[in-house]
Amino acid sequence: MKIICIGRNYVNHIEELQNERPTEPVIFMKPDSAVLLKQHPFVIPEFSQDIHHEIELIVRINKVGKYIDTKFAHKYYDEISVGIDFTARDLQDQLKSKGLPWEKAKSFDGSAVIGEFLPKTQFSSLENLTFELTINNKTVQKSDSSHMLWKIDELISYISQYFTLKIGDIIFTGTPEGVSAVKPDDVLEGFLEGNKLFRIHIK
Ligand code: ZN
User: Are 80 and 57 spatial neighbours (Cβ–Cβ below 8 Å)?
Assistant: First the structure.
């Protein structure tokens, strides 16, 4: 199983990090060892003083595909959730400034939180799904899928031009604005249309 992540998919988040607006999706990956095991706390790694939360809509691939046309992409996933793309922002800034790959900052153990999946048929449309991250019961990130530069089906099509999608692969579709550092004892909860899909303790 692989995790494919999209960067810079929300204009307001691009602006908060003062990144350039991309002309095509930015892609990076996390290995399966990045998945935070269920019921486990997220332990802040020693190599970073600035671990940021990024809540994202995620989908799970249910069919093998390559060169998928956008109009058929909806057949390749039937479940949706929210997750966190934990990012060592200090390390990422160093790597970015040297033009080096981001993996150490993005793909370390526990950096991928995967919420409980819901059938997409539960929602009348995927075009304006609201999702939210709270820390200690306070909302820190809130957006909806209408603000995505590239929609889920466009992302699946784009990714599949380069990487064969397999059953169980997960796509993280990018974070909206509001990213910030987590600290020990924080409790993070992720919601999709009001459904609580994960709860993570920071250590
Ligand atoms: Zn992200």
Answer: yes
Q: Phi, psi at residue 116, to the nearest 5°?
A: -65, 135
Instruction: Give 122 Cα–ligand 1 centroid separation in angstroms.
Output: 25
pTM: 0.96
Q: How far is the CA of 174 from the centre of ligand 1 (A)?
A: 5
- pLDDT tens digits, 78-129: 999 999 999 999 999 999 999 999 999 999 999 999 999 999 999 999 999 9
CATH superfamily, domain 3-201, is Fumarylacetoacetase-like, C-terminal domain (3.90.850.10)
What is the secondary structure of 96-121 as a DSSP string? HHTT--SHHHHSSTT-EEEPPPEEGG
175 C-alpha to ligand 1 centroid (Å): 5
Q: How far is the CA of 5 from the centre of ligand 1 (A)?
A: 6
CA of 90 to the centre of ligand 1 (A): 15
How much distance in Å is there from the Cα of 6 to the middle of ligand 1? 6
Digit-coded pLDDT (tens) for 131-150:
999 999 999 999 999 999 99
